[in-house]
Amino acid sequence: MLLKKLMAILMGLGGLPGLSGGVQAARPPQPAMDAPGECRDSAFLQQHPLTETLRAEPFVIFYTRSGDNAPPLEDTTGSGTPDYVKNVAIQLQAANQYYQKMLRLTPPLEQPRYRLAKAIHVYLFDLPRGNGMAFDEVTRVKGEDGNWLPCALTIRISSKLNQPLNPTPAHELFHLYQYGYTQFKVGWLLEGMTRWIESAYNGEIVMSKKLQARPPLKGAELYALRYSAWPFWQRLAREKYGTVTLSPELEAVRYLDGNPVFRTTTLPGGEALEPLLTRLQELSKEQSRQANLPYYQWPEKLQQSHQFDDVICQAMEGIECSR
Prior knowledge:
Blueprint: H1 2-12, E1 39-41, H2 44-47, E2 52-56, E3 59-63, H3 83-102, E4 119-125, E5 132-140, E6 152-158, H4 168-181, H5 187-197, H6 199-202, H7 209-213, H8 219-223, H9 230-240, E7 244-245, H10 248-251, E8 266-267, H11 273-291, H12 300-303, H13 309-315
Parallel strand pairs: 1-5, 3-4, 4-6
Antiparallel strand pairs: 2-3, 5-6, 7-8
C-alpha cells in the first residue's frame, strides 16, 4: 500500500527529478532480427505415451507396441523393430538425401532459423484426421525418465498408413525444408509445391490434356488452391529450369518388401527448387524488415495471410500474377 501511495505521489509530481514523462515501466529487450524462435516445452509424450524409439539420423522415430496408437507390428527381419517403423525410416532418410544432394537444398537443422534444434522427432500415432503434420516451431519433450530431451523439430505421422508406398513421411519432411527457408505458409505455395515434389515417390504427375489446354493458373484462382496448385509449380519449373536425375545410390533404395522408394528417376524442372526457395527466403526477410519483425518470429496469422500472395507470385521470375 505504501509503495502504491509513493508511486502516485511521484506521478503527480511529474516523476523523479531528471526524468521526463514520469515513471516508465522497463520495456523488454527487442529480439535481434536474426534471433531464432524459442524452444517451447511440449506435453505431447505425456498425452500420447510412445515408449519405443528408432534412431535413424537425423530422425528419432517414436512409437508404441500397444493400444490404438500402435502401428502394424509385423517384423519380417526379426530385428525387434516393426517393418512399418523401419519403412518410415527408410523413406525419411532417402527423402532427406534426395532433397539435399539432388535438389541442393539446405537441410532444416542447418538453417539459421532452427539452430536451437538438435534432431527431428517423428511421432507415429493414430492421428484423429489426415495422414501427417509438420510443425515449424522448435519444441522439447520429456522422455520416459522424466528428463527433457534435446530441442527438436517435429513431424507427426499416422500409424495407419497404407505402407510402404504412401509418401506422407517425405511430404511432411519437405514442409520442414520449406519452413527453414521461408515464413510464408499459404496453401498454394506449401501444399502445391510439395504435391509436385511427391512425383518422385508416386511417379510423374501428368497433366491431363484438358489441364494442359487451360491458361496457366494465376491470381485469385491460384491463391484459393492448396494441393491442386501443383500444375503452377510444375509448369513454372519445366519452362525455366533443368531436369534433376536421381543418383544410382538413391535409385537403388528399397523398402523391406523390395519396392523402390523412388518411382521415377527424373524430376523435370527439379533444378528450380533451390533458386525458388532461396528467393522466398530473401522475400521473407524483406517483408520482416518492412514490418520490423524478427526474421523467424512471425505470428502464425501473418504467416498464413494471403496479403503476400501477389508479392510471392511476382517474385517467381516475374510471372504474370494479377488477380
